[in-house]
Design goal:
By secondary structure, this protein is mostly helical. It has helices at residues 34-38, 43-58, 71-85, 90-103, 118-128, 134-153, 184-194, 206-219, 223-228, 263-266, 280-293, 308-320, 325-331, 338-343, 348-363; strands at residues 5-10, 16-24, 27-33, 234-235, 240-243, 254-257. Helix 7 (184-194) crosses helix 12.
Length: 366
């Protein structure tokens, strides 16, 4: 039986590299540079690594197939696979990447999963994320927990330390009438009238930001979907948008009208995204500046959010305009359930008419 053969070669750059040829379980393995592969710089380290490799082989694994071990490597691989098989959509990637790069990549992301401890996660929560809301902290578990579960299934780790971190139960958001002195219609009218006065932090973003805010105020569609719309999704001659299923929460195409106020801006877009510089991270604060500009008074500094536009639209359509509640719901592309989902559907002209009535009402001066 051949013995293990370890040789040392000095490269042109002056470094010593340890090369190993060995036979194990009846198979001869070709020469491997253990210095390059594993950072072995002494014969002792080379022998120790060789012993580890033989243990891996005895377990039926190929130790020379490089496996991804750090959280960063595993997250990037999961993202690549999830995009390819359609598990994650572009909006999901945008949200996950924003959070991951901000809080994880440079704090614990460089570590091997087997080396990440509960103390590491506690420090991340208590220091790096001490200022964020609990709903944001829950994003950590949504992103990282599946990676740990998969590595446990593969036998590469034995404990999922992510399960030791608490999941926060989120309270139901207060009704709008418990956050502000204003009635629903006045809120929307004030926001509508404030949009043309909004000044972006960068002058060249002014028209884009105003058009984006006008779409949020007037259509009440999800801001994540609006950021992914392209000019190719817009039919300006018909003043209509067809949102593709690749960006919608319901995973279905759907149509809705474009407000007249946004048409001039859209005509300046030649191709691609209609809101190319609007970013997820800045969107919430942008909307808060609009609320302040609109002089909407709230209780104890409570907030009105972009998502509240959906509640406001439904309330005004149903209560003020007496529009059928299911039709109002359909304007926002909410997925209907049960019998209604199977048997009741509205034509585009019904949705267009509902929106036009809504827009006529909010354009009127209060």
């Amino acid at each position: 039986m051949k013995k293990d053969n370890i040789t040392v070669k000095t490269l042109k750059n002056g470094t010593e590299n340890y090369y190993v040829r060995f036979m194990y379980q009846g198979r001869e393995y070709p020469v491997k540079n253990f210095t390059k592969l594993y950072g072995c710089k002494t014969k002792k380290k080379t022998l120790e690594k060789l012993a580890e490799i033989k243990i891996e082989i005895s377990k039926g694994r190929n130790p020379f197939v490089l496996t991804k071990e750090t959280l960063n490597e595993l997250y990037d691989e999961r993202k690549k696979i999830s995009l390819k098989n359609g598990t994650w959509r572009a909006r999901t990637v945008e949200s996950y990447d924003y959070f991951y790069n901000k809080y994880i990549r440079n704090t614990i992301g460089y570590k091997k999963l087997s080396k990440i401890t509960y103390e590491d996660l506690r420090k991340l929560y208590d220091d790096n994320m001490s200022h964020v809301e609990n709903s944001t902290k829950n994003q950590f578990k949504r992103i990282v927990r599946p990676i740990f579960i998969e590595e446990m299934k593969n036998g590469r780790i034995h404990t999922n330390v992510v399960d030791m971190i608490e999941t926060y139960n989120m309270p139901v958001r207060e009704k709008i009438e418990l956050r502000t002195f204003e009635n629903n219609l006045d809120i929307v009218r004030k926001l509508y009238n404030a949009v043309p006065k909004y000044e972006a932090l960068a002058y060249n973003q002014k028209e884009e930001m105003r058009a984006y805010l006008m779409m949020i105020v007037m259509t009440a569609h999800r801001h994540g979907e609006l950021r992914q719309l392209t000019i190719e999704d817009c039919y300006l001659d018909r003043k209509m948008i067809i949102a593709p299923k690749t960006i919608t929460k319901t995973k279905e195409d759907y149509r809705y009208p474009i407000p007249e106020e946004v048409i001039p801006y859209l005509k300046t877009i030649k191709s691609g995204l209609i809101f190319p510089t609007v970013k997820k991270g800045s969107m919430y604060q942008v909307f808060q500046r609009l609320v302040k500009l609109a002089n909407i008074e709230t209780f104890n500094n409570k907030r009105i959010s972009p998502h509240d536009m959906r509640r406001l639209l439904l309330s005004i359509m149903i209560k003020d305009l007496k529009i059928d509640s299911v039709l109002a719901d359909s304007c926002l592309n909410h997925k209907q359930r049960g019998v209604i989902n199977h048997y009741l559907s509205f034509e585009y002209k019904d949705i267009e008419e509902a929106y036009n009535r809504y827009w006529e009402l909010i354009r009127l001066k209060s």
